[in-house]
Design goal:
With 301 residues, this protein is mainly α. The chain is built from eleven helices and four strands. It folds into two domains: 82 residues; 155 residues, no CATH class. Helix 7 packs antiparallel against helix 8.
Length: 301
Amino acid sequence: MNDKAKEYFNTSAPDPVRETVIHTNLKKDKAKASSSTIVKPSTAVAVDTPELIQTKASNEELQKRESERVEALRRTINAYYDDIPKRLRDYPEAQSKCLKLLVTAEEALTPPITRNGLVKSRLDLTRLEIEMFGAESSKISFVIVVAIIYIFAMVAGLAIGTDLIDFSSEAKILNTKLLMGIPQPIWVWSVIGSFTSMLFRAGNFPFANKNEAVRWLLFRPIVGIVMGVMTYLMVTAGLIVFAGTSTAQTPQLLWIIAFVGSFSDTLSVNLMQQLIGRFKVDGKQLSTPDATKDLNAGKVT
């Protein structure tokens, strides 16, 4: 810039042109300053709260449990594929139903696995177990019925062969024949009632497993006979009184009492509880817990 120009801009006299140039230069300087300023973005990091951490942990635990359930169901399905041909080899119809349920349960576990699929798979496996239990219990019941008939035939044959049963004598005469102080007809009708109850039970109620059926087959006849004889003794001892006292001691009624006592478990148990309730310990009935403690301590009156 020459001296004349400097002099022109340095003059203090107001000049519109000079004011315009100065104002323009100031705007340019402000624009450069603002463009050189760098605005840094926010670098704040989100921090998980304790509630959020607990929720994530709970979700992970639920997913882990669901995975374990799925694996357990798959192992159960594989085990059933091996068991069904063995356990139901004599029941082709039940075997077919169980295999269909098994396939349905396996399809419900095909990925992606949903909650409804998991529930459906468990439901199908439960139905399968019920079907297998029904088929197996019917087989066990049939075997038990055959065993009962076989045992009863053997006992009856033995009694007839040894003249323990007399078909020709009158009732009064039969009651004079004693075995351990008990009339022979009481023993006979106790045996008949016990085996009749066993046939009724085996034909109407399935057994859970073979071990239960075998235990019941061994002990139920003995218990039934004993309870039939005990019922007879309670009647003759006057512990049980019937409304028709004039006919309470007829032979036929006593035979019926022996039959019912050996047939009905509920009746025999109730009669025994009433009998025990007649005994007292220090004024307390023997059937109460306190009286039982006193009895164990030797306080019997």
